[in-house]
Design a protein that fits this description.
8 helices, about 45% helix, single chain, mainly alpha
Amino acid sequence: MNLHLVNGHGVGRAPRSGQPWEQDDYETLVELCRQAQDAETIAAALGRTAATVMDRARRMLPVDERGLPRDRALHRLAEHLRDPDYDWDAAMVRSAPPAPVEHRVYRREGVEGLRTDELLAVAELLALLPHGGRQIRTQVMGRIERDIRLVEQLEARVGRLLVDRAVRLADEHAWLDERFESDHGYRHEAQHWYDPRPPGWDDDPVCGHGCDDARFVDLMPEHEG
C-alpha cells in the first residue's frame, strides 16, 4: 500500500518537496517543456509541486523576463527553447542589475527657500521701508521670529543701518546748508558754483547756474522779477 503525506489543507505533498534541485532535474524540466507538457505533468515527473516547477522555469528565463506571471513562465521558456542556441543554464546564473539608487532633492520655494543671509537682507529692507508688502512681511517676519538668533541678528543689522543712514543724512544736510544759506536759497556771491559731489551721493558732479559744462546739472534757481 502506498502512503501519501497530506498537509492540513488536504493536498498531497510532493515526494521531493524541499530537496535541492540537481542538474538532472533541470534537464528533465527542459525536455518536458520542449514537449509542451503542462506544469502538473512536469511536477509529477520530478516529484515536485506545480508551483515550484513554474518558479524554476521562470528562473531559466532571461533576466528582463523574470517578472512574468508564474503561470506564463513555462510557455515563455518553451518559446526560448525552440532556439537551439538558447543557453538556459547560463541564463540562470545571471542576476538582475541592482535597482537604481534614487536621490531625492527637496527644494523649498518662496520665503522658506531663502538662505539665512538672503532672509536677513529681505528683513532689513522691510524694516527700513515700514509701509506696504503685507504678505511678504508676514512671511518673512514669521520665519524670523521662529529663531531667536535670527531676531538678534536682524536687530543688530537694522540698528547699524539706521545709524549709518542718520549719519549720511546729516552729512548731506550740512553740505546743502553750506551752499544754500541765504534767504533766496543760495549764496548771493556764488553766481557760478561747483562742487565735485556731495558726501554720500553717487551722482555726477554738479555746478550752478550758467555752468558751461553740459555734463553737469544746473541746480541754481532763476531769480524772480
